[in-house]
From TrEMBL:
GO molecular function, one term: DNA binding
Domain MCM C-terminal AAA(+) ATPase residues, every copy: 286-383
InterPro entries: AAA+_ATPase, CHLI-like, MCM_dom, Mg_chelat-rel, Mg_chelat-rel_C, Mg_chelatse_chII-like_cat_dom, P-loop_NTPase, Ribosomal_Su5_D2-typ_SF
Region (Disordered): 263-285
Gene3D superfamilies: 3.30.230.10, P-loop containing nucleotide triphosphate hydrolases
Name recorded for this polypeptide: YifB family Mg chelatase-like AAA ATPase
Source organism of this protein record: Denitrificimonas caeni
Lineage: Bacteria, Pseudomonadati, Pseudomonadota, Gammaproteobacteria, Pseudomonadales
Transmembrane segments: none
C-alpha cells in the first residue's frame, strides 16, 4: 500500500479541528515533502520522525514521500502530528496492516529515540474525537487528561513500538483506565475571619448567588481584598460541562498535563497588565486572563491604577461572554464568561471624606482619579459597595457573623432556583428572559422607573437592577420581586452615584 491516511487534531483556540495526515510513496530519489500550511515545528517533524523510526529498529521508506496535512488552508503548529506521521509512513510502507488506522486519532510528539512526549491541548481534541466516534492515542502523560472526556476510548503509550506491536497483533494494548484521581476540595478562607463589614458580606452573597459583578470601594485597610478572596469559597461547585470548559482552556497553557477536573478559577492580574495580557493574543493566539477566569472570578485590585485602555477591553466580553482575537490568517474565539470583582480607593491617597480629615487630595485630583473609570464600564458592574473603616478591636466578636458554610447553602439554593426557572444565572438573562422572569406589579414598575430617573440610571443599569432584585428574591425563596428587593438592589446602585 503506497497511500495511507491517519487522523489527528489541530489546535485553534479551544477548538480541535480534524486533520487528515495523508502519505503517498512513489518511486524516485528519496525525499520527504510536507504540504498543507505547516509551520516550522511541523516541517521539522520529518527529522524527528525519521530518527524515531530508525532508532525503533523499523525501516524508514527510501522513496519519494509526499505528506499532506488536510485541510490545506488550516494552519498546522507544534509537534502534535509526529505520531500520526510516523504511523502513516509505516502503514504506507506496508509495515502496518492496511485499514488498521481508520478508527484511531493520534496526538503526540516523538523523541529521537521513539518515545512519545505529551502535548498541550489534549482535552479539546479528546472531546472532538469522542464526538467523531474514534479512539484516541496519546502519550502516557496525557492519558488522565484525555480520560476527562467520558465515554472516549483512550490508548496511552510510552514508545512508538508499543503501537506498532498493537496494530501488528503482537502485543494488544488495552484501553487506558483512569486512576480516578479526584481533585481535593480547595480550602478557602472563611467569611467569619472578616471582622464586621456586614453590608459587604451581604453583597458577596448576592454576587455569588446571581453571578453579579461587584465593585468594593473604601479606604486602605478596610478589608476589600480580604472580602474578595472569600468569594471563591461562596460559589457553587462547577458542573461537569463547566468543568470541561475550564479544563479545555487550562490545557492550552499548562506545561503539566491536567489530571483532574479543575475548580473555579480565581485570577488576580497586577495593575501593570497590558491589554493582550487580559484578552489574550500573540502570533499563535493564547488565552488571556479573562479567558483563564472563565466560569470563575477575575479580581482587579486597585482598579483605577489599571490603564484606562486596558479596562475598556473588558466591556465587550462582560456582555457577550467570549472574546474573538483576529489575525491576518484566522480568527480565534475564547470563552470569557467570568465574574468581575474589583476594589478601589475613593481617591489617590485613599482617605476621601475621612472624618478625621486625613485626605489631602484636591477636588481636581479626586475627579481625575475617578475619571480613569469610564461610565460604560461602571454601568456593567451590578453591585457598588462602600467599605467603611470598622472600629479597631483585636478581641473576638461576641456574636459570630455569617460563615462561609452558611453562605454557600444560601447561594446554592438560589442558584438551583435560577437553573430550574430559566436555565442560567440571573446575571446572564437576556432581554426576553428578563421580561419573562422579572415581572413587577404596575405600582412597583412605576416606582422603579421614577427611581431610575432620579438616579439618572441608564436602561442597561435599570435592567441590571432588576436582575439583582431577582437574585434577592431567590435568596429569600420568593417567586415574586417585591418593593423590598427593588429598594435593596437600587441601594447598591446608589453608591455608584456618590
Amino acid at each position: 500500500m503506497s497511500l495511507a491516511i491517519m487522523h489527528s487534531r489541530a489546535q485553534i483556540g479551544v477548538e480541535a479541528p480534524a486533520v487528515s495526515v495523508e502519505i503517498h510513496l512513489t518511486n524516485g530519489l528519496p525525499s520527504l515533502t510536507i504540504v498543507g500550511l505547516p509551520e516550522t515545528a511541523v516541517r521539522e517533524s520529518k527529522d524527528r520522525v525519521r530518527s524515531a523510526i530508525l532508532n525503533s529498529a523499523l525501516e524508514f521508506p527510501r522513496k519519494r514521500i509526499t505528506l499532506n496535512l488536510a485541510p490545506a488552508d488550516l494552519p498546522k503548529e507544534g509537534g502534535r502530528f509526529d505520531l500520526a506521521i510516523a504511523l502513516g509512513l509505516l502503514a504506507a510502507s506496508a509495515q502496518l496492516p492496511g485499514g488498521c488506522l481508520d478508527d484511531f486519532e493520534c496526538l503526540g510528539e516523538l523523541a529521537l529515540s521513539g518515545h512519545v512526549r505529551p502535548v498541550r491541548g489534549v482535552l479539546p481534541a479528546a472531546l472532538a474525537a469522542r464526538d467523531a466516534g474514534r479512539a484516541l492515542v496519546v502519550a502516557l502523560a496525557n492519558a488522565e487528561e484525555a480520560c476527562l472526556a467520558s465515554g472516549l476510548k483512550v490508548y496511552a503509550i510510552d514508545h512508538l513500538l508499543e503501537l506498532v506491536a498493537h496494530f501488528n497483533q503482537q502485543n494488544t494494548l488495552k484501553p487506558y483506565q483512569s486512576q480516578g484521581l479526584l481533585a481535593q476540595p480547595p480550602s478557602y478562607p472563611d467569611l467569619l475571619e472578616v471582622q464586621g463589614q456586614d453590608a459587604a458580606k451581604r453583597a458577596l452573597v448576592v454576587a455569588a448567588a446571581g453571578m453579579h459583578n461587584l465593585l468594593l470601594s473604601g479606604p486602605p485597610g478596610t478589608g476589600k481584598t480580604l472580602l474578595a478572596s472569600r468569594l471563591p469559597g461562596l460559589l457553587p461547585p462547577l458542573t461537569e460541562h463547566e468543568a470541561l470548559e475550564v479544563a479545555a482552556v487550562q490545557s492550552m497553557i499548562n506545561l503539566e498535563p491536567l489530571r483532574n477536573l479543575p475548580q473555579r478559577p480565581f485570577r488576580q492580574p497586577h495593575h501593570s497588565a497590558s491589554s493582550p495580557a487580559l484578552v489574550g493574543g500573540g502570533s499563535r493566539p493564547q488565552p488571556g486572563e479573562i479567558s483563564l477566569a472563565h466560569q470563575g472570578i477575575l479580581f482587579l485590585d486597585e482598579l483605577p491604577e489599571f490603564d484606562r485602555k486596558v479596562l475598556e477591553v473588558l466591556r465587550e466580553p462582560l456582555e457577550s461572554g467570549y472574546i474573538v482575537i483576529a489575525r491576518a490568517h484566522s480568527k480565534v474565539r475564547f470563552p470569557a464568561r467570568f465574574q468581575l470583582v474589583a476594589a478601589m480607593n475613593p481617591c489617590p491617597c485613599g482617605y476621601f471624606a475621612d472624618p478625621n480629615g486625613r485626605c489631602r487630595c484636591t477636588q481636581e485630583q479626586v475627579q481625575r482619579y475617578r475619571n480613569k473609570l469610564s461610565g460604560p464600564l461602571l454601568d456593567r458592574i451590578d453591585l457598588h459597595i462602600s467599605v467603611a473603616r470598622e472600629t479597631t478591636s483585636l478581641r473576638k466578636p461576641k456574636t459570630p457573623g455569617l460563615s462561609s458554610a452558611q453562605a454557600v447553602s444560601q447561594v446554592c439554593a438560589a442558584r438551583q432556583r435560577q437553573l430550574q426557572r430559566q436555565g442560567c444565572s440571573n446575571a446572564q438573562l437576556d432581554l426576553n428572559a428578563l421580561r419573562q422572569h422579572c415581572t413587577l406589579t404596575e405600582e412597583d414598575r412605576t416606582w422603579l422607573e421614577q427611581a431610575s430617573e432620579r438616579l439618572n440610571l441608564s436602561l442597561r443599569a435599570t435592567h441590571r437592577v432588576l436582575k439583582v432584585a431577582r437574585t434577592l428574591a431567590d435568596l429569600a425563596a420568593s417567586s415574586m420581586i417585591s418593593r423590598e428587593h427593588l429598594a435593596e438592589a437600587l441601594q447598591y446602585r446608589f453608591h455608584e452615584q456618590q
